[in-house]
Amino acid sequence: MQLHDAAARATSRVWNYPRLLLTIGLGAWGWHLGAHPGRWSFGLDDVNLAIHETGHLIFWPFGEWLTVAGGTLFQLLVPLSFAAYFARRGDRYAATVPLWWAGENLFGIARYVSDARAQALPLVGGGEHDWTWMLYELDVLHRELEIGRAVHGAGIVVVMGATVLGLAFARRAPTSS
Question: Is residue 134 included in any domain, yes or no?
Fold first, then answer.
């Protein structure tokens, strides 16, 4: 009898339409960004830039390498910390939204990595290009486009993975009467 009840509960789950619509919207936006490398992500890029610059300040006490890399690290750590928070609370659906954001950040990071030699992107305060410095120090500056494509590919995997998980978790159990 318990097996039958569990099966009935599983098949009686219904869509949470606001979550479903949000997930479809994020999936479409992510698909667009993934298909058009180098496109700006209206509004969200400004938030990501502020987080990136804050990362340099936060990692400054830990030496030159982490100061330079800290912008990119913080861009990923902020959304991933939100995802971890929601996952710990047991809201698996909510965790997929900042996971999607981390993937979207990878698209911007890929654009920045790919620009390491050309240095065509405007920099805040006209400072040194983080990825030029890091790739030069690692003696792989000549591979910036290849590395940028790999980071972009990782962004596609994370964005689409978050979308698929969001769809899977955008269902809710019916309320008891």
Answer: yes
CB 102 within 8 A of CB 157: no
- Alpha carbon 144 to chain centroid, angstroms: 20
Mean pLDDT of the chain: 90
The pLDDT of residue 177: 42
Count the Cβ atoms, other than its own, within 10 Å of residue 78: 20
**What confidence score (pLDDT) does residue 122 get?**
84
Q: What is the DSSP letter of 173?
A: P
Which residue type does 104 have?
E
Structural domains in the chain (count): 1
Give 15's strand partners. 171
Beta bridge partners of 153: none
Q: Can you give 52-78 as a three-state secondary structure string?
A: HHHHHHHHHHHCHHHHHHHHHHHHHHH
DSSP code string of 129-141: -HHHHHHHHTT-G
How does residue 143 score in pLDDT terms, banded at 50, 70 and 90?
very high
With respect to residue 9, please indicate whether it lies within any of the assigned structural domains: no
Domain assignment present for residue 126? The answer is: yes
- Predicted confidence band of residue 59 (pLDDT cuts 50, 70, 90): very high
pTM above 0.85, yes or no: yes
Domain region containing 141: 15-172
* Residue 152, domain member (yes or no): yes
